[in-house]
Structure formats: C-alpha cells, structure tokens
C-alpha cells in the first residue's frame, strides 16, 4: 500500500491523503464560509494566527455588518480594529482590509467582477498580500485554478522526501501531479470534479492532516 515514504508525485500524495477521509466533516471546498467575500477577509485575517481566532473576528465583523466591500471600505478604523482583535496584528490588518476593500471598489466596482478579473499580480501589489494569501483568495474566494501551498504543505512534502527552493516550485510540483492525472482523479472521485475543487480539497486535506499531527 502506498504511504508517505514511497510517493513519486503529488497525485500519489493526494491518494494517500484521500484514504484518510480527512474532510468528512468539512464543507465541499473545505474553507468554511457563508459567502466568498468572507473568504477574502478570512485569507487576510488568518495570517500568523490560528483559524479559531479568525472565526471570532469574522463573527464580530458579521455582527457589525462589515462583511461587504462598501461597509468595510467605509468602516470606522477604530471599530474595525477592535472587531478583529482576536486574530492579532489588529492595527496592521484593519488598515490593510480597509485599503483592500477601497482598491477593489475603485478597480473592479464589485466583488463578482473582482473575482472574475483579478490577477495574481494585482493581488501581490496590494499591501500585506503575499503569495500564499493571494493564492488563497484566487483559489477559495474566486474559484480560479490555483493551488495554495503553505508551511504545512512544505513540511509534509519535505517529510515525503521532496525539497523545493521556492514557493512557486513547490506549487508547481503540487499542481503538476494533479494536472497530469486528471482522468485517474475523476475515477477516484467517481465524477468529473473541477480542477479548482481538486486544488481546494487537496490543500484542505494537507492542512487537516498536519493539524492532526499525523506525521508523528
Ligand atoms: N490555517 C487555515 C485553516 N485552518 C483554515 N481552516 C483551518 C478551516 N482555513 C480555512 C484557512 N487557514
């Protein structure tokens, strides 16, 4: 039976993780949310903190009706800062969220248009958005075919014997094994699962696997 010690590509890794049924009690696309805009906010808030802290901040934002581009861009900075206190770096993150909301409105007019037309480059030019956050927004909020890789992915793939010099190289390895084996993945799932959904679930499985500390 295949295990983490003898995988040759990311398709093998997906198969090993799929066997574990890690997403049984999770949403279809793994990232929990009421809507895609909440995912965008969550992708910023989750930087350098635990997801449980992000959930508390999101609840506060929901209670203040700040979960829209318009309300967020017009939010009182002090009120916004207090609302996101649970997820840390509150002063930095509140300014960045407000600025991002304004920039999206200015450039794309509304959130649907943003999701359809935003590029990775545009996101990377925004204050406080690095590669992982940009890809989380593209993959989970905008449903684009982009796989997120993070410290969990790096650690797991390294444990399996693969080392990469950059974020892009690790991401390319993850995507390549999936893209080259789509027919087999459709067989595994029993239907033609969209590429974005495969990437979402693959990354979600990696996070859940690592959170459960299954390497030990
Ligand atoms: N680090 C994380 C997460 N851990 C997460 N979930 C658990 C559900 N999400 C959605 C994003 N980042």
CATH architecture of the largest domain: Orthogonal Bundle
Q: Domain count, please report it.
A: 2
User: In CATH, what is the homologous superfamily of the largest domain?
Assistant: Hypothetical protein, domain 2
- The share of residues in helices is 55-70%
Shape: elongated
> What small molecules does this complex bind?
6-amino-3,9-dimethyl-9H-purin-3-IUM
- Biggest beta sheet attributes: none
pLDDT averaged over residues: 97
CATH topology of the largest domain: Endonuclease III, domain 1
Ranges where pLDDT stays below 50 over 5 or more residues in a row are: none
Query: How far is the N terminus from the C terminus?
Result: 19 Å
Which percent range describes the beta-strand content?
under 5%
Q: Topology as H/E string?
A: HHHHHHHHHHHHH
| Strand segment count | 0
- What count of helical segments does DSSP give? 13
Radius of gyration: 18 Å
Structural class of the secondary structure composition?
A: mainly alpha
Assembly status: single chain
Under CATH at level 1, the class of the largest domain stands as Mainly Alpha
List the helices and strands and how they pair.
Layout: H1 10-19, H2 36-45, H3 51-63, H4 69-74, H5 77-83, H6 90-108, H7 111-117, H8 120-124, H9 131-141, H10 151-159, H11 167-179, H12 182-189, H13 195-211
Bound molecules: 6-amino-3,9-dimethyl-9H-purin-3-IUM.
Residues 31-32, 46, 51, 207 line the site of 6-amino-3,9-dimethyl-9H-purin-3-IUM.
Keywords: 4Fe-4S, Iron, Iron-sulfur, Metal-binding
Domain HhH-GPD: 45-188
Protein name: 3-methyladenine DNA glycosylase
């Amino acid at each position: 039976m295949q295990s983490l010690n003898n995988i040759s590509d990311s398709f093998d890794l997906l198969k090993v993780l799929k066997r574990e049924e890690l997403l049984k009690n999770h949403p279809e696309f793994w990232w929990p949310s009421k809507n895609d805009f909440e995912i965008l906010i969550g992708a910023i808030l989750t930087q350098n903190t635990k997801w449980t802290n992000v959930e508390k901040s999101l609840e506060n934002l929901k209670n203040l009706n700040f979960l829209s581009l318009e309300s967020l861009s017009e939010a009182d900075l002090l009120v916004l800062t207090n609302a996101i206190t649970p997820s840390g770096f509150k002063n930095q993150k509140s300014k960045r969220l407000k600025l991002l909301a304004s920039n999206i409105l200015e450039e794309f007019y509304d959130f649907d248009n943003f999701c359809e037309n935003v590029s990775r480059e545009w996101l990377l030019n925004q204050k406080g958005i690095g590669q992982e956050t940009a890809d989380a927004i593209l993959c989970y909020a905008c449903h684009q075919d982009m796989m997120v890789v993070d410290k969990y992915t790096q650690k797991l793939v390294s444990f399996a014997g693969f080392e990469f010099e950059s974020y892009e190289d690790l991401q390319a390895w993850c995507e390549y094994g999936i893209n080259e084996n789509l027919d087999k993945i459709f067989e595994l799932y029993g239907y033609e699962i969209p590429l974005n959904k495969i990437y979402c679930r693959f990354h979600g499985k990696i996070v859940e696997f690592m959170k459960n500390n299954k390497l030990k």
